[in-house]
Specification:
This protein has 368 residues and is mostly helical. It is built from 14 helices and four strands. The protein is elongated, with a radius of gyration of 23 Å. The chain starts with 20 loop residues before the first helix and ends with a strand.
């Protein structure tokens, strides 16, 4: 069976949006809420929420490709490139620095048309100095670019991209299509998640670089979402994709067999909505943390503050299993009696809410 780029109607993507209106409207609604929430936060809190989302995106987009980045290195890189540090902070990992730089570049240049020079620059940011492969240029050579799995001697080929000698012309067409389909373009695609889905599918089907195609393809999807809502999107698309990695690859590979892309567009739009909802939760979490310390900080001792801060570090997904006396002791070195007394005090303040009873008692954040 042929791949999509081998078909005579390539790249004339077809899709049906019947029944998708609720998802598309919900995405726009949540995108508006996140933007409004961020604008209503004090500057310091707004920056914290923005950093949280950008760090999550940089770390998770690399995790999809099997690379583990230190979030602290990524944060230092993003802060450096946003100009938030009085003096640049050291970043020990070149990959983390590149991932952070790419996140900032995509965000700050979202409204600009796409160019070949942009893509080469992104590729150098991401991989320059970290690989013997060619960086900042299209792939070359006669060997096929394949996505494979399984044993080396008996691999399963999931997808094969166009030959390298076709890439310059194919990418020129892709860049033209990308710019023509922007809001206000000659072939505008009106719904941001729909266009982002097609952008990602189109780019991944070409696989124009030796390495880094997945990360740059997701950055392009983010650029498309930002252009669609008219401001830098506040989202960690890769966080949701990474949690459904197998489903993501299956959906993408299925879409790369035909120009009929309805199933892929529906799947990707659902992922974009889930990622936008997650971003909203994260921004609300930053506000919740601010209000918590406003209300309770003066009433807490050093042990309690240490534990509360550790619980907040776990993020909006929560501290696994809540807090209990055993975890409190491990974090603070307190005796069992002191841990129990401290936790009960937090409960009386309304800072934490107890559930269960006896040795099974655990504590979660109260209403803030």
């Amino acid at each position: 069976m042929d791949y999509n780029w081998q078909l005579p109607d390539w790249p004339e993507f077809r899709y049906n949006l019947h029944g998708m209106e609720p998802v598309l409207l919900a995405f726009a609604d949540h995108a508006g809420r996140v933007g409004g929430l961020l604008e209503g936060l004090p500057q310091k809190l707004g920056t914290e929420a923005l950093l949280d989302l950008m760090i999550a995106e940089a770390v998770k987009t690399s995790a999809i490709e099997g690379e583990s980045l230190n979030p602290q290195d990524v944060m230092s890189s993003i802060r450096n490139h946003l100009g938030l540090n009085a003096e640049p902070q050291r970043v020990d990992s070149r990959l983390a620095d590149g991932a952070g730089e790419l996140m900032v570049c995509v965000r700050e240049s979202f409204c600009a048309p796409l160019s070949e020079a942009d893509l080469f620059c992104w590729h150098r940011m991401l991989l320059g100095g970290t690989t013997p492969l060619k960086v900042g240029t299209w792939r070359t050579g006669g060997d096929p670019m394949q996505v494979v799995s399984g044993r080396i001697d008996r691999p399963t080929v999931h997808f094969e991209a166009p030959p390298a000698d076709c890439i310059p012309a194919e990418m020129a067409r892709f860049i033209g299509w990308f710019n023509e389909t922007t809001p206000g373009g000659t072939c505008a695609i009106p719904h941001a998640p729909v266009r982002a889905a097609l952008v990602h599918l189109y780019f991944e089907s070409l696989h124009p670089f030796e390495d880094g195609n997945g990360r740059i393809g997701r950055a392009l999807a983010e650029k498309a979402l930002s252009q669609g809502i008219g401001r830098p999107v506040l989202i960690s698309l890769s966080k949701v994709i990474e949690a459904r990695r197998r489903e993501y690859y299956e959906a993408l590979q299925s879409a790369q067999r035909s120009q009929e892309t309805t199933a892929w567009v529906r799947w990707f739009a659902g992922i974009a909505l889930e990622a936008q909802q997650d971003a909203e939760n994260r921004v609300r979490f930053v506000l919740r943390k601010f209000r918590f310390f406003q209300r309770h900080e003066r009433d807490l001792n050093g042990r309690q503050l240490k534990v509360i801060r550790r619980m907040f570090e776990a993020g909006p997904d929560g501290f696994a299993g809540g807090m209990n006396a055993r975890k409190y002791i491990a974090l603070t070195g307190a005796s069992k009696a002191t841990a129990t007394r401290d936790l009960q005090h937090l409960a009386r303040l309304g800072a934490l809410t107890p559930t269960g009873g006896g040795r099974s008692t655990r504590y979660e954040f109260g209403v803030v």
